[in-house]
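Hi V.,

You were right to ask for the full record rather than a summary. Here it is.
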Amino acid sequence: MTDTRDDATPDHPSGAAPRPDGSASSAWRTMARMARPRPTRANVFAALLALALGFALATQVRQTNQQGLEQLREDELVRILDDVTQDSARLGNDARALEVTRDRLLSGADTSQEALKAAQDRVDTLGILAGTVPAQGPGIIVTIQDPGHKVTSALLLDTLQELRDAGAEAVQIGNVRVVASTYFTDVSGGVEVSGVRVDQPYVIRAIGDSDTMASAMDIPGGVTESVRQLGASSVVENKNVVAIPALHPLDQPRYARPVPSPTTSSR
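Predicted structure:
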């Protein structure tokens, strides 16, 4: 018997299109349920850790941004402002002095003598800074009495730093001339300055603006208050002339050598 059906005719009855299988949508629903977060202990713990980490990072950033002048007390801010003002005034005076010397040298009038005087002034300045020549001038004398032997090398170092910040140009502690390489050491019953024992009372001579240096000693939280808290006492005397006779021996450098000046042939 011959089959008369057309090959293109679909096998579905009534010629209806096939319905999509519902298994695909069911699979998607199952995956959605699996991906849905579940309030388990692990998830809750991880969320708490994330919150704690975020809070710590925010706090650290805030503290970092606030570090600086915002954390200083009023007296510390006043001290910093005074130091900046004094440094500015000192640098201004130095600049004006150098400009006067430059103008004299460029004027051509008695150039050789002006150059010699400028060189000698420079030698004197370097000698004072290096502690190789005696010095005198207005300043203060600080006397620290320490019957309980509570004053340490750290306090003397703080005193020296206060004086330098206040513009001290030459300093002597006991019989020791203070220079850039000066160091302080605690020893039994006292203090050594650059290896030399300094006996009580500690007498500190400083040349500079006497009013400024005296005020630096008496600022809140400064040297005078620190000495008083240790049961010791300090007296600051303003003097029109303070003599600093102690000298610092000039040691020959072991390693440092001056850089040779370039010659015309080597240029």
